Amino acid sequence: MRRSRPSSDLRGDDSGSAALEFIVAGCVLLVPLVYLVVALGAVQSQALGVQALARQLARVVATAPADRAGAALVDATRATIAAQYGLDAADLDIEVSCAAPVDCPQPGTLVTVTVRSAASLPLVPPVLGLDSIAEVPVEARAVQRISRLWGAS
Predict the structure, then answer these.
(1) Which of 100, 103, 132, 101 shows the shortest CA–CA distance to 119?
(2) What Rg, from alpha-carbon coordinates, does the chain have?
(3) Residue 2's pLDDT is what?
(4) CA-to-CA separations, 126 to 3, 35, 46, 121, 132, in angstroms, rounded
(5) Is a pLDDT exceeding 60 seen at residue 65?
(6) How many C-beta atoms surround the C-beta of residue 35 within 10 A?
(7) What is the reported pLDDT for 4?
(8) CA–CA separation, 145 vs 147, rounded Å?
(9) How far apart are CA 80 and CA 133, in angstroms?
(10) Residue 94 bridge partners (DSSP)
(11) How far is CA 80 from the centre of its chain?
């Protein structure tokens, strides 16, 4: 008569493979999750910088004197905030417009400042133009009323 084998002998030896499976599964799940957090942080940083720049530029335009010193204040504000948030000042697209169809800016009108930029995703190589595809457009708009006494001496 033949002896039957216990069922545990039929499965083979699995000792030590649980740790390996945990490490492999952990890496497969953890690496994309870490990249997602880093990419979202880069986009959020760019969005916060663009929003701060739009808000501050609207305030500067609304309160600046009516002479050329206002343009110098706008340039200084742009450079300062771009440096604080790590933005490239050359890549920022800034548009200033007024609600009224008069020369902008005029006392009592609303000035709208729109700032556009693009946040580059981290670790994307510049091979085959992938770095230009892997950008997230970011836009911020701020509105400020110009004082009725603006430009008065």
Answers:
(1) 132
(2) 29
(3) 62
(4) 67, 18, 20, 11, 8
(5) yes
(6) 13
(7) 58
(8) 6
(9) 28
(10) 115
(11) 17
Tell me how far apart the alpha carbons of residues 110 and 150 are, in angstroms, rounded to a whole number: 12
Question: Could you give the angle at the alpha carbon of 18 between the alpha carbons of 16 and 20, nearest 5°?
Answer: 80
Residue 114's pLDDT is what? 95
Q: Decide: residue 31, CB within 10 A, 0-12 exposed, 13-18 middle, 19+ buried.
A: exposed
End-to-end C-alpha distance for the chain, whole angstroms: 116
- d(C-alpha 138, C-alpha 135), whole Å: 9
Longest dimension (CA), the chain: 116
Q: What is the mean pLDDT of residues 108-126?
A: 89
Angstrom distance (rounded) from CA 91 to CA 7:
68
Q: Is 21 left (phi over 0), alpha (psi -120 to 50) or beta?
A: alpha
Q: Tokens for 137?
A: 């457009």
pLDDT tens per residue, range 2-15 = 665 555 555 556 56
Q: Which two tokens stand for residue 86?
A: 């790590």
